[in-house]
């Protein structure tokens, strides 16, 4: 919708920053992780990623799909075969020996049947940086409207009222309130500090190196 000009601002997967023209980033607000994100994982029956021969990717998550390719090409130094599939673990594992799973299903995969590799953990182990999955972005022609919206204050208000936020989704989240609170506090990061910026710049540089984006334009934050 942002790319088509249907909205002025949107929470966008970060890879799209390099694919959409004339946009800027809202500073200090993101969806990312400095440790284990838990909800973005690579699942395999192999005991070592270097033994993986074919990976099924859910291409609806283009940021995570690019991250998987970067991990294999840059850090594991080999290229498995890639295939795309609907985000269903059972069907994905029938056609590949590893699968990219995101969202709630990623958090409920049995560690007894599969080896589960957390992508944010892998990224941190290889780079020492946090990983940003999504950020608020604004069309440049609409930047003048954005000061009226305090994104950071909205983030802080949400974090200060987590119990109320969690209670408003009783039937949509397959986890207990304590599990969701732990996930939102310990696994997800909502602020863009220097570590996150460094990780974001490195992700874009490696995505360009491995031909996943045409170029890596500089980060442009509103007000900076």
Write a compact overview of the structure shown.
With 224 residues, the protein is an alpha/beta fold. Helix content is 33%, strand content 21%. The protein is globular, with a radius of gyration of 18 Å.
SSE topology sketch:
Blueprint: E1 9-13, E2 23-33, E3 40-44, E4 54-57, H1 62-75, E5 81-84, H2 89-95, E6 98-102, E7 115-118, H3 119-127, E8 131-139, H4 151-160, H5 162-167, H6 177-187, H7 194-209
Parallel strand pairs: 4-5, 4-6
Antiparallel strand pairs: 1-8, 2-8, 3-6, 3-7
Helix pairs in contact: 1-3
Name the helicity range: 25-40%
Based on the coordinates given, report the CATH architecture of one domain: 3-Layer(aba) Sandwich
User: Strand tally, please?
Assistant: 8
DSSP strand (E) fraction?
15-25%
Shape: globular
The tally of helices reads 7
Q: What is the third-level CATH name, the topology of one domain?
A: D-Maltodextrin-Binding Protein, domain 2
CATH superfamily of one domain: Periplasmic binding protein-like II
Low-confidence stretches: none
In spatial order, strands of the major sheet run 5-4-6-3-7
Arithmetic mean pLDDT: 93
Strand-pairing-aware structural class: alpha/beta
Give the N-to-C terminal Cα separation.
Answer: 25 Å
**Sheet of most strands:** 5 strands, mixed
Mind telling me the CATH class of one domain? Alpha Beta
H/E series:
EEEEHEHEEHEHHHH
Give an account of the 3D structure.
With 224 residues, the chain is of the alpha/beta class. It has a domain at 40-127: D-Maltodextrin-Binding Protein, domain 2, CATH 3.40.190.10. The chain is built from seven helices and eight strands. The chain has helices at residues 62-75, 89-95, 119-127, 151-160, 162-167, 177-187, 194-209, and strands at residues 9-13, 23-33, 40-44, 54-57, 81-84, 98-102, 115-118, 131-139. The strands form two sheets. It has a five-stranded mixed beta sheet, sandwiched between helices. Helix 1 (62-75) packs across helix 3. The longest helix is centred in the C-terminal third of the chain and has 16 residues, at 194-209. The protein is globular and about 50 Å long. The mean pLDDT is 93.
């Amino acid at each position: 919708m942002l790319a088509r000009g249907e909205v002025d601002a949107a929470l966008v997967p970060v890879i799209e920053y390099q694919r959409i023209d004339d946009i800027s980033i809202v500073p200090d607000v993101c969806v990312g992780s400095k440790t284990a994100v838990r909800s973005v994982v690579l699942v395999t029956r192999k005991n070592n990623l270097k033994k993986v021969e074919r990976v099924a990717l859910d291409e609806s998550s283009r940021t995570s799909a690019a991250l998987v390719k970067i991990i294999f090409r840059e850090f594991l130094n080999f290229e498995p075969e890639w295939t795309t599939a609907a985000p269903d673990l059972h069907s994905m594992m029938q056609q590949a020996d590893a699968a990219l799973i995101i969202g709630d299903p990623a958090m409920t995969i049995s560690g007894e049947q599969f080896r589960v590799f957390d992508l944010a953990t892998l990224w941190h182990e290889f780079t020492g940086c946090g990983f940003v999955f999504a950020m608020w972005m604004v069309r440049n022609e609409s930047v003048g409207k954005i000061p009226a919206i305090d994104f950071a204050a909205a983030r802080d208000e949400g974090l200060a009222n987590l119990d109320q936020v969690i209670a408003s989704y009783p039937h949509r989240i397959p986890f207990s309130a304590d599990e969701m609170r732990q996930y939102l506090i310990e696994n997800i990061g909502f602020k863009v500090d220097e570590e996150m910026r460094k990780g974001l710049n490195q992700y874009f540089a490696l995505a360009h190196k491995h031909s996943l984006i045409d170029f890596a334009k500089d980060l442009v934050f509103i007000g900076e």
